[in-house]
Design brief:
Blueprint: E1 6-9, H1 13-16, H2 20-32, E2 37-39, H3 44-47, H4 49-56, E3 68-73, E4 75-76, E5 89-90, H5 94-108, E6 113-118, H6 127-139, E7 143-149, H7 153-160, E8 168-171, H8 178-181, H9 184-190, E9 196-198, H10 212-227, H11 233-242, E10 249-252, H12 257-264, H13 273-284
Parallel strand pairs: 1-2, 1-10, 2-3, 3-6, 6-7, 7-8, 8-9, 9-10
Antiparallel strand pairs: 4-5
Helix pairs in contact: 2-4, 4-5, 5-6, 10-11, 10-13
């Protein structure tokens, strides 16, 4: 399902202010680099990003079969597009899931989604009802496969018992290692399911460290830039994630083509196990037990 080591994320597409031509060039370059998963969500850019993507690619239908398009549903919040939402909440009712999927299809200008994720788990979610709704979308040819995002192992097991899930998109970075210890990555490996990793650069903290731990980590990673003769610490951060046996598909948030080219080169870096553990030690604040 998730064919490559990287996915291209579009949550900042509205902020990037790319022209339609530039958006097409970005997608074409990503495909040339072996990045074929395009990561979206209905809410990105306050519901604008999927339409920006779809409008840009409307005259380039030949690219569709080369891509795997991912979207997400379930999160609701107030903005100009959705004035009826007065409080941030999650809605995983059949009507909400179907409306979200159909809006994504319309905005992305595609007949189907390769993968639809529940964006976040809800205390009110009914796994059986969600599974029935997903199966309806599958039978109608609107969505091929399904997954989740930000689910705990028990939440994943619950929904997976009703419908086979293809991924759990979770936060993983050199500064966020919870999934190493809470069973998330163990579970996915057990079921031979590949995770997706969001915020792999810790929300930019590795470029602007503030705490003493962040500064120590960045300083060590900078020594690895020299040791492995690479361009930047983000390549080290990506290589660190890719070394994990769960084989996460890492989501790149940049819409800068040179950054994409730089990131892809991190696949060539094979970190020494001691260097890998030193990063983990600094991140956790203590050495391995």
């Amino acid at each position: 399902m998730l064919k490559n080591n990287f996915a291209l994320g579009f949550w900042r597409l509205d902020d990037a202010k790319l022209s339609q031509k530039q958006t097409v060039e970005l997608v074409e370059k990503a495909l040339d680099l072996g990045i074929s998963t395009m990561d979206h969500a209905d809410i990105y850019g306050e519901y604008k990003c999927e339409k920006l993507f779809g409008d840009a690619l409307q005259n380039h239908s030949h690219l569709r079969d080369k891509m795997q398009i991912v979207s997400k549903c379930g999160i609701k919040f107030e903005c100009d597009f959705t004035p009826k939402n007065k409080v941030k909440h999650y809605d995983l009712s059949p009507a909400s899931i179907i409306e979200s999927a159909e809006n994504s299809l319309k905005n992305l200008r595609t007949d189907y989604l390769d993968l639809l994720l529940v964006h976040r788990p809800s205390p009110l979610m009914n796994a059986e009802v969600i599974a029935e709704t997903f199966e309806k979308l599958r039978k109608e040819g609107k969505v091929k496969e399904f997954g989740v995002s930000n689910f705990t192992p028990s939440q994943f097991n619950l929904l997976n018992s009703y419908i086979p899930l293809k991924t759990n998109q979770v936060e993983i970075s050199v500064l966020h290692t919870d999934t190493f210890y809470d069973g998330t990555l163990d579970q996915l490996q057990q079921h031979k399911i590949r995770p997706m990793a969001w915020s792999p650069l810790a929300g930019g903290k590795i470029f602007n460290p503030e705490t003493s731990k962040e500064k120590e980590l960045v300083a060590f990673m900078q020594t690895l830039v020299t040791k492995y003769n690479v361009n930047s610490i983000d390549q080290i951060a990506m290589a660190w994630l890719l070394k994990h046996p769960a084989k996460p598909q890492v989501i790149i948030g940049s819409q800068n083509i040179s950054r994409l080219e730089n990131t892809v080169k991190s696949q060539e870096i094979n970190l020494d196990v001691q260097d890998w553990f030193k990063i983990l030690e600094i991140s956790n604040g203590h050495e391995a037990p």
